[in-house]
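A quick aside before the break. I want you to see a complete sequence-to-structure record at least once, exactly as it would be stored in a machine-readable document. Don't worry about memorizing anything.
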Amino acid sequence: MTEVRKPEGAAFAFRRDAIQRFRFVRATLEETSGRVELVYAFDDGPELVETLQFPDAPFALDAPRRHAVDAALRLLHLIAGVSYYKAALPPELVVEGVLPDPALAALVTSVYEQGLGEFAYRNGLSLRGRICFDTGLPVSAAPSLGLKPHALTAIGGGKDSLVSIETLRAAGVAQSVSYIGGSPLIRTCAEHTGLPVLNIGRQLAPQLLEFNKQGAWNGHIPVTAVNSAILVLAALLRDADQVVFSNERSASYGSLIPGAGEVNHQWSKGWAFERAFAAYVRDHVATDLRYYSLLRPLSELAVARRFAANDRYDAVFSSCNRNFHLTGPRPENRWCGICPKCQFVFLALAPFMPKPRLTAIFGRNLLDEAALAEGFDALIEYGAHKPFECVGEGREARAALFELASRPVWREDALVRRFARDIAPHIEPVALASLLEPSAEHGIPHSVWTRVSETFRA
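That is the input. The structure line, written in tokens, reads:
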């Protein structure tokens, strides 16, 4: 969870529709302290300073490493700016200092246009053609730094990252479990792995919440893109040759909105972003730094099957997004039970986990609560589009329900019985087994893939 500092000094009169420029002022790293400052501004307004704190400073950087760090810092500065740019959406983007090379400008343009797709849809906006960066000259090829074989594995507290961590552990890949911000839930999960933990502090510019109160545009941002850039910088500082995320293939598919087309809440978790971001890092930051998602070949159901095979994290994990909101109430327990994430995770685990174990994790049986019917209908895309959440495809949810409807232990539960009676006769059956085979589309390094591929097929 990213922390937000309280504003200091006089209030700034934020007039959203009058702002004409968004400025990328500077990005700095103090090698002695590990402090990074990302500085932005609207027009000639006050500086908006976001800070990151990388542990284990000081960092001794030779010339090739410093070159790579500077490239990673520029990448992070531009991508993290999306949190501030969206507050006003001014027509002009100004990068002060070194202009982005054409490849970087193209990457960041896609992050802003595609990563803000849900934000634009919910606010009735169009960002197509609106994002334009002036560009400088192409940059030289990235250096090879001789990075040590070590993975920074991102952990979010949910089942997916825990599956990646345990898969890499079993494959003998050295790793540090890595997270950004101060979430107690993520910290507990990270410590529960028994592996080295990397916690990077992050504080958004304090004015941002004040701008929201003064009418700023608000909504979802591509946070995985931001976190990816942070961990790339961390890998260079800590001499690690891999940054590993846990985005499954289902993340590439969005919500199909009548009249609007596909809008993907998870765009920066999808294959298109991963492929483009990894290529830029390899070509323009460090040739021996690999960014990839270990779970890209798998469906959400395949991930759930792998998670269910290990009960080590039953008492500590949570995929409930209400635990990670900057503001608003948190659930009293780790699972609220009413958000799409809770409902999908329960449904995805049900075919692979004994019923008493699953209901003990959630503290209730979500499939026996008739009042939750609307939420589960959205998950299977029956009379509603896929929710704007990090959930699997509609066909995965349908496959899970078809499977549960065939099992005596589940078929009498209210929502399973309703599905079998009222919905299943009107939709195409989906076989669970058909969604469990790994895909060949992924960016996993060959040295890692040879160690995990048989496990994924088991």
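Two observations worth writing down. The first strand starts at residue 3 and ends at 4. The CA atoms of residues 157 and 185 lie 7 Å apart. We'll return to this after the break.
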